[in-house]
Write a structure and sequence with these properties.
Layout: E1 3-7, H1 12-23, E2 27-32, H2 40-49, E3 54-57, H3 63-72, E4 77-80, H4 87-92, H5 94-115, E5 119-125, H6 148-166, E6 171-177, E7 179-181, H7 200-208, E8 215-218, E9 230-231, E10 233-235, H8 236-252, E11 255-261, E12 267-268, H9 269-280, E13 286-289, E14 298-299, H10 304-310, H11 318-331
Parallel strand pairs: 1-2, 1-4, 2-3, 4-5, 5-6, 6-11, 7-10, 8-13, 9-14
Antiparallel strand pairs: 9-12
The structure holds UDP-4-deoxy-4-formamido-beta-L-arabinopyranose.
């Protein structure tokens, strides 16, 4: 049985990936500092899989802790989710983002190197494409970032590509997520944003539960089907399964590969709102506001490389994504409580 270290494994995507890993027969160890999650997620993972993953409440900024984890466990590969991820916050506190997302990651890569663990799947983001010149977006499109969060993702990609050039025995998959939404069909795990949600679907879900009064639609004057922003929403379970395919590829290849994880379909803000209304059976009131600074009009993935290289494609559509998101939200109106 192969052992996988999942950093950030009590987070939104990390917890869903942990469930899929356990159900695929892997042994999972989670390392998380619980900054944006809680130990309750471990119990939820156990409720779904029957397995309580080994857990280290440690911080990537503690190199000694990382060395200890690799000393105490024979780790075959790492899936690296841990990191700060709020675009707006990264603009306000860039040094915190560079320290955590870059220095923290470097500590992890050093610990892996020292332990001879050279298989890594990295959580990157479509945000590295900036404002694409056309859609669908291919992995070989120009890269440019417009905020420190996106830049930390791009820098990690470059660091890992250089590492693979320096030591061809490494195998690194750089997965560029589009817009992850939805939740595990059990409704036991899902997205629990801190404070006021920045992202569309968690905000809509809170309007549906009455926690928020109405949805603010950031602009309806884009050159899109209905003037509102278009994005490639992907079910978090599809995304998790994409990580398992990436892991399989890492175990049978070396070198670095970047892969888009999206559906290849774009939906507008109003189309998502309508799909969520269908899922929850309630009207989602909204108001058209000014554009949000930094937003782009349209973003969706070219999925050919994921299919060809990993043999993976997304299976869930927007209706299932909204159904599962609403199922989680209605069962957890205040999300999964965070570490005190
Ligand atoms: C989607 C659309 C908004 C909220 C961000 C990060 C990206 C990735 C995914 C980490 C846009 C509109 C949103 C609201 C709205 N995160 N919107 N009202 O901006 O595409 O991507 O999350 O990797 O890095 O940039 O996602 O959900 O914030 O916005 O009208 O209350 O919904 O304008 O068109 P985004 P989003």
């Amino acid at each position: 049985m192969k052992t996988i270290l999942v950093t950030g494994g009590t987070g939104y995507i990390g917890s869903h990936t942990t469930v899929e890993l356990i159900q695929a027969g892997y042994q999972v160890i989670i390392l998380d500092n619980l900054y944006n999650s809680s130990r309750e997620v471990l119990k939820r993972i156990q409720a779904i899989t029957g397995v309580l993953p080994k857990f280290y409440e440690k911080d990537l900024l503690d190199p000694a802790a990382l060395q200890m984890v690799f000393k105490e466990n024979a780790i075959d590969a790492v899936i690296h989710f841990a990191g700060y991820k709020a675009v707006g916050e990264s603009v306000e506190i860039p040094l915190t983002y560079y320290q955590n997302n870059i220095a923290g990651s470097l500590n992890l890569y050093e610990a892996m190197k020292e332990a001879g663990c050279r298989k890594l799947v990295f959580s990157s983001s479509a945000t590295v494409y900036g404002n694409p010149q056309s859609v669908p977006i291919r992995e070989d499109f120009p890269l440019s970032t417009t905020n420190p969060y996106g830049t930390t993702k791009l820098f990690n990609e470059r660091i890992l590509e250089d590492l693979c050039i320096s030591d061809p025995s490494w195998s690194v998959l750089l997965l560029r997520y589009f817009n992850p939404i939805g939740a595990h069909p059990s409704g036991l795990i899902g997205e629990t944003p801190n404070g006021i949600p920045n992202n569309l679907v968690p905000y809509i879900a809170q309007v549906a539960t009455g926690k928020r009064e109405f949805l603010r639609v950031w602009g309806n004057d884009y050159d899109t089907v209905d003037g509102t922003g278009v994005r490639d929403y992907i079910h978090v379970v599809d995304l998790a399964q994409g990580h398992l395919k990436a892991l399989e590829y890492a175990f049978s290849h070396t070198g670095a590969e970047t892969v888009n994880l999206g559906t290849g379909n774009g939906y507008s803000v109003l189309q998502v709102k309508n799909a969520f209304e269908k899922a929850c059976g309630k009207e989602i009131p909204y108001q058209i506001m000014e554009r949000r600074p930094g937003d782009i009009a349209i973003c969706y993935a070219d999925t050919a490389k994921a299919k060809k290289l990993l043999g993976w494609n997304a299976r869930y559509g927007i209706d299932e994504m909204c159904r599962d998101s609403w199922n989680f939200q209605s069962k957890n109106p205040n999300g999964i409580e965070k570490a005190q």
